[in-house]
Amino acid sequence: MKWIDFANPTTLDEAIRLLSEHGEKARVMAGGTDLIVQLRVSPERIGNADLVIDGKGIPELNEISFSKEEGLTLGASVPCYKIYQNPTIAETYPGLIDSASLIGGIQIQGRASIGGNLCNGTPSADSIPTLIAHNVVCKIVGPGGTREVDVEDFCTGPSRTILEPNELLVSLHFPAPPKGFGARYIRFIPRNEMDIAVAGVGASVQLDEKNSVIKSARVALASVGPTPILVNEATSALVGKSPEDESAISKAGQAAKSAATPINDMRGTVEYRKHLCDVLTRRALNAAITRAKGGTIDVH
Question: Which residue, 51, 65, 82, 253, is the most exposed by fewest CB within 10 angstroms?
Fold first, then answer.
């Protein structure tokens, strides 16, 4: 078994120094539920790392702060259970709870984080379509300072992201949702024993003051391409239309189906997964509209 060093920095500066010294041989551990498995089963996938840097001891990576004016800042290492057990977040961002409550079982959620799920970069990640639907901005820190990146630009390929070897994701910023905003994440899995989406859809809508017109909308897909997919054509089909216009929602579903670029594998065929993108998009949009109007939905 290969020897791997472990570091537990307590400041961002210390973590950046370690990353700069070890380069591609270092990996930051947000929760560790993916990283530990990769180190044991497929170390070549992550460059045969020789140093693990624990992010749980860095205050900025564990931040949870919210205000009605500024929105939510979520540190990259905040575990899922702290998200869905936070009553303010659960009330204000139910679309985020959709994802946080799906990532693994209850034991996994004690460690796994939304930031780690994003940095793992897998196309099937349940959190990323939700982040895209919420217009999240990623805060990244490295030796050169801080930069911010729209979350839809974060993943560049399967298990690949825009992070440089000496950078780390610090936090995710969710804009404050105005009145008339709603979001929903839905996925389809082949069975409970295989907890990986065949297809997943995150959708959001912003309605006008009278709840009569869709002012903006976002649809993002998981597990049907090399990266999560933001479907701009779905936005075009919805903006300016009534939230009751089923033809507009149907066009958004068809846009999602067209945007999907899945492969055949043990979880489903190309045709089946594209069909799911249509169905799940329509369901997610209708649920997001219900939430935007102040209603509740059955998430079971």
Answer: 65
- Residue 185: both structure tokens together: 């994440």
Q: What is the pLDDT of residues 19-58, one digit of tens each?
A: 999 988 899 999 888 887 787 777 666 667 889 999 999 9
The two structure tokens encoding residue 146: 């801080």
Phi, psi (degrees; rounded to nearest 5) at 212: -110, -15
State the DSSP string of 43-100.
Answer: GGGGT--SEEEE-TT-GGGG-EEEETTTEEEEETT-BHHHHHT-HHHHHH-HHHHHHH
287, 293, 294, 299 alpha-carbon torsion, rounded to 10°: 0
Residue of 171, 230, 236, 226 lying closest to 203 (CA atoms): 230
Give pLDDT tens digits for 187-230.
999 766 567 899 999 999 999 999 999 999 999 999 999 999 99
CB atoms inside a 10 Å sphere around CB 298:
5
The ranges assigned to domains in the chain are 5-54, 59-174, 184-292
Q: DSSP class of residue 279?
A: H
Out of 3.30.465.10, 3.40.50.2000, 3.20.20.70, 1.20.840.10, the CATH code matching 59-174 is: 3.30.465.10
Q: What are phi and psi of 224, to 5 degrees?
A: -130, 30
Beta sheet of 71-75, edge-to-edge order? 64-67, 71-75, 168-174, 137-142, 145-150
Give the DSSP H/E element, type plus range, for residue 29: strand 26-29
